């Protein structure tokens, strides 16, 4: 990726979910250094506030805001959206980055399987709540961090909450498939609005993903892949590119790897599946 000019994002406002560490923090750091006003979200208020202060100091840009919210809880997603709308009269870029991986099945405060709740329903709901502001700010961009793991994912609408069987790598893959399907359907619905939607695979990145409830298999795969794994800044490169590069302004409904478009899995490009997931997701966040 070609390094972007320092003032490229001056006057732009960006929200990055999961911005206190890993890919999200690196993304926020890069965009703040380009002059954007950047909001970051995190579960813990003090940690999020401290991360925002550190990012402001590191980037030399005082316009870094903190929003504390547990995105696995729909009421908190709604509260976050309300706070963002109150603070930001315009929103140029939304980066859906927050995500998680759990080896055993956990249930969210809303009674939903945690991986699906945080990795898919949270960005689905947050995006919908911020969509009018993004349209008002057009041209605007929605960038969702997915994974190559989406190609292993399957959606069983008879057991979407994985109550019958739970194998964590495939549950994670299911949530990442949902991210890509969501992006394709979102792009279709946004056609002509000036708001684009893209998804990406950041690569194998050295982050804290999965450390709360680790999987032996994932630990082994992470260990084996460590020599070739990316730093958070390297993993954020495609996110930053899609959020800021002038040539990326017209990209929509596409999946990217290493800042280049790549065909996502056949399943992820099924319009009927995407439409069904959209309707089911709408029902699950209603209220």
Structure characterization notes:
This protein is of the alpha/beta class. It has a single domain (69-220, 229-284), classed as Rossmann fold (3-Layer(aba) Sandwich), CATH 3.40.50.720. It is 43% helix and 14% strand. It is built from 9 helices and 8 strands. It has helices spanning 22-33, 45-59, 74-87, 114-136, 168-189, 216-225, 232-235, 237-244, 271-284; strands at residues 13-16, 37-42, 64-68, 93-96, 140-145, 195-201, 254-257, 260-262. An 8-stranded mixed sheet has the order 3-2-1-4-5-6-7-8, sandwiched between helices. β1, α1 (22-33) and β2 (37-42) form a beta-alpha-beta unit. The model has no long low-confidence stretch (mean pLDDT 92).
Helices and strands in order:
Layout: E1 13-16, H1 22-33, E2 37-42, H2 45-59, E3 64-68, H3 74-87, E4 93-96, H4 114-136, E5 140-145, H5 168-189, E6 195-201, H6 216-225, H7 232-235, H8 237-244, E7 254-257, E8 260-262, H9 271-284
Parallel strand pairs: 1-2, 1-4, 2-3, 4-5, 5-6, 6-7
Antiparallel strand pairs: 7-8
């Amino acid at each position: 990726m070609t390094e972007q000019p320092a003032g490229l994002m001056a006057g732009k406002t960006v929200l990055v979910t999961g911005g206190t560490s890993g890919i999200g923090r690196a993304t926020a750091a890069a965009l703040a250094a380009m002059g954007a006003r950047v909001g970051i979200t995190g579960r813990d208020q003090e940690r999020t506030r401290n991360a925002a202060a550190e990012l402001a100091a590191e980037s030399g840009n005082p316009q870094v805001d903190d929003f504390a919210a547990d995105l696995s809880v729909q009421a908190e997603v709604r509260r976050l959206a309300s706070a963002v709308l109150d603070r930001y009269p315009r929103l140029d870029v939304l980066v859906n980055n927050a995500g998680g991986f759990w080896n055993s099945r956990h249930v969210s405060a809303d009674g939903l399987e945690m991986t699906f709740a945080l990795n898919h329903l949270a960005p689905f709901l947050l995006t919908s709540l911020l969509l009018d502001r993004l349209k008002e700010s057009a041209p605007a961009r929605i960038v969702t961090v997915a994974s190559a793991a989406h190609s292993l994912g399957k959606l069983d609408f008879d057991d979407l909450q994985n109550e019958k069987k739970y194998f964590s790598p495939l549950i994670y893959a299911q949530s990442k498939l949902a991210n890509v399907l969501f992006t394709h359907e979102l792009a279709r619905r946004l056609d002509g609005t000036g708001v684009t939607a893209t998804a990406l695979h950041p690569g194998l990145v050295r982050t804290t993903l999965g450390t709360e409830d680790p999987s032996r298999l994932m630990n082994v795969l992470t260990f084996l892949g460590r020599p070739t794994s990316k730093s958070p800044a390297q993993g954020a490169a495609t996110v930053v590119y899609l959020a800021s590069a002038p040539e990326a302004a017209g990209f929509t409904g596409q999946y990217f790897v290493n800042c280049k478009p790549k065909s996502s899995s056949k399943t992820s490009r099924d319009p009927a599946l995407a439409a069904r997931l959209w309707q089911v997701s709408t029902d699950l966040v209603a209220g």
